[in-house]
């Protein structure tokens, strides 16, 4: 997500520089920065310095560093202590119910509350390495989805480390999250658990027209012909060819083939993963489940309840009262705190991957990028602030930022 920030920061930064210069004039000549810190901060970066060695939580961009006499003078430095406290609070809230659920179930447990995106795979791998290979592994999953290929990669990674995999869903495991659920030997679902259709979506390159959606499902393209036949009685072959020509005028032909390929890829992966859950079931039954998930619902945000998931043929067990209570407690403890304004987003946890011996948080941070994205930032050129996310990992005392 890109957020533009105008020139409203310039007066505040100018005031900060004047205040720092005044304190420097009245202060002792010795700098409060250590030699290494001063060298890192002032290494020929013009008006901006990049500090990373002493800031494990995020790389901080600091304007006019040389005019400040104390770390407290540096804009944003007060956030480091705040972020550390927020991480401690998050862990103190998340780990106790996580350990309680682990004791209740009697299996090692991983909490995955994050999108299924490429940047999350390495973090999950680090978490799995701390646990080692297990006969039985539980994963508490809460996600609104992600990419098909990442769900596939995560599923294969989990199966590398677990002979028997159980996925517990306290709330949402939608879209690619449902695709990942197919790889589990068993699903444990509560009354609030929600799975969803797995139809593939493709986004437009660049900015779509104002009247066009940002994402289009492969099923939307397929439904156009069905709509023409059922609503308007278009049944003649020449009329169908005209419909195809009309669609090709609106969507580039190779984009149409991309819809077809993504739909085929989704069904291929779903069949592969479902074989973990239903290895002894006839392939026609597995294909029926895949067809239903990939093309049997009229909206991508349709909610598949635990009862419907079981009737569909998935191996679903309803959570016990104790499991239900602990799952909900884990979910509530791992949810991000609401922000008062966009400027307070930095440091707010937006995702968690954790076990009893590992924790990692997905954090947003503001970075300055050139207004013209193909250029590098040069002194005097305009920049805009963009919100990016990164992982802050800490496992058994060793921190690492990604």
UniProtKB/TrEMBL annotation:
GO cellular component: membrane
Pfam families in the record: SDH_protease (PF01972)
Stretches the record annotates as Disordered: 1-35
InterPro entries assigned: ClpP/crotonase-like_dom_sf, Pept_S49_ser-pept_pro
Name of this protein: Serine protease
């Amino acid at each position: 997500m890109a957020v533009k920030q105008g020139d409203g920061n310039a007066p505040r930064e100018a005031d900060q520089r004047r205040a720092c210069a005044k304190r420097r004039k009245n202060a002792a000549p010795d700098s409060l920065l250590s030699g290494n810190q001063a060298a890192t901060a002032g290494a020929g970066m013009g008006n901006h310095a990049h500090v990373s060695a002493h800031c494990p939580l995020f790389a901080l961009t600091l304007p006019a560093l040389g005019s400040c006499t104390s770390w407290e003078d540096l804009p944003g430095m007060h956030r480091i202590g705040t972020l550390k406290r927020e991480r401690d609070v998050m862990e103190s809230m998340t780990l106790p119910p996580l350990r309680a659920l682990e004791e209740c179930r009697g299996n090692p447990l991983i909490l995955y509350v994050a999108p299924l995106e490429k940047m999350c795979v390495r973090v999950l791998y680090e978490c799995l390495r701390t646990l080692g290979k297990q006969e039985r592994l539980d994963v508490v999953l809460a996600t609104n989805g992600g990419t098909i290929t990442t769900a596939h990669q995560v599923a294969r990674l989990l199966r590398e480390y677990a002979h028997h995999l159980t996925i517990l869903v306290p709330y949402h495991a939608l879209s690619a999250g449902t695709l990942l659920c197919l790889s589990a030997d068993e699903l444990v679902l509560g009354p609030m658990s929600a799975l969803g259709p797995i139809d593939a979506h493709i986004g437009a390159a660049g900015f779509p027209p104002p009247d066009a959606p940002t994402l289009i499902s492969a099923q939307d393209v397929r439904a156009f012909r069905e709509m023409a036949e059922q609503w308007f009685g278009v049944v003649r072959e020449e009329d169908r060819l005209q419909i195809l020509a009309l669609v090709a005028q609106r969507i580039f032909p190779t984009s149409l083939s991309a819809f077809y390929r993504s739909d085929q890829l989704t069904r291929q992966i779903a069949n592969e993963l479902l074989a973990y859950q239903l290895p002894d079931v006839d392939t026609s039954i597995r294909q029926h489940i895949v067809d239903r998930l990939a093309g049997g619902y009229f909206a991508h945000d349709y909610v598949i309840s635990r009862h419907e998931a079981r009737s569909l043929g998935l191996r679903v067990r309803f959570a016990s009262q104790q499991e239900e209570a602990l799952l909900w407690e884990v979910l509530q403890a791992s949810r991000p705190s609401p922000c008062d304004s966009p400027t307070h987003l930095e440091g707010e946890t937006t995702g968690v991957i954790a076990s009893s011996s590992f924790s990692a948080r997905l954090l947003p941070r503001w970075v300055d990028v050139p207004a013209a994205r193909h250029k590098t930032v040069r002194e005097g050129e305009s920049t805009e602030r963009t919100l990016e996310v990164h992982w802050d990992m800490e496992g058994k005392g060793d921190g690492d930022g990604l």
